[in-house]
Amino acid sequence: QVQVVESGGGLVPPGGSLRLSCAVSNSPSRIDSMAWFRQGLGGERERELVAEIEDDGSIEYAGSAKGRFTISRDNAKNMGYLHLNSLKPEDSAVYYCRARRTGVVDYWGQGTQVTVSS
């Protein structure tokens, strides 16, 4: 059974940084893209794309993430990362990792909570 496990969330003051990790295990084939989504803590906002990275290294960022967040991956380890910098209170959310086998299936983790507060 494929597992997607996020880690690295926590409480951080405004302007702080975090590194989120996403570990994918037991995939029967290559993971084509890895992406990070987030959803407001009360579920009041829809889950939104933060950043996505393909296995060839091409990257897409949402407008709110450009210049502050950096997505990366280690294909050999089936790991994905999201570096969050210059965090703002409005970045507070549950961050989810999605691992995609294109045209086959999406795998989702349970999320890791990020709270930005002084």
Sequence-ordered SSE layout with sheet pairings:
Layout: E1 3-7, E2 10-12, E3 18-25, E4 33-39, E5 48-54, E6 59-61, E7 69-74, E8 79-84, E9 93-101, E10 105-108, E11 112-116
Q: Please, what is the average pLDDT?
A: 94
Order of helices and strands: EEEEEEEEEEE
Portion in helices: under 10%
Unreliable runs? none
Portion of residues in beta strands equals: over 45%
Number of strands: 11
Can you summarize this structure?
With 118 residues, the chain is mostly beta strands.
Describe this structure in words.
The chain is 0% helix and 53% strand. It has strands at residues 3-7, 10-12, 18-25, 33-39, 48-54, 59-61, 69-74, 79-84, 93-101, 105-108, 112-116. It starts with a strand and ends with a strand. Strands 2, 4, 5, 6, 9, 10 and 11 form a seven-stranded mixed beta sheet that branches. With 118 residues, the chain is an all-beta fold. The protein contains no helices and eleven strands. Strand 7 and strand 8 form a beta hairpin.
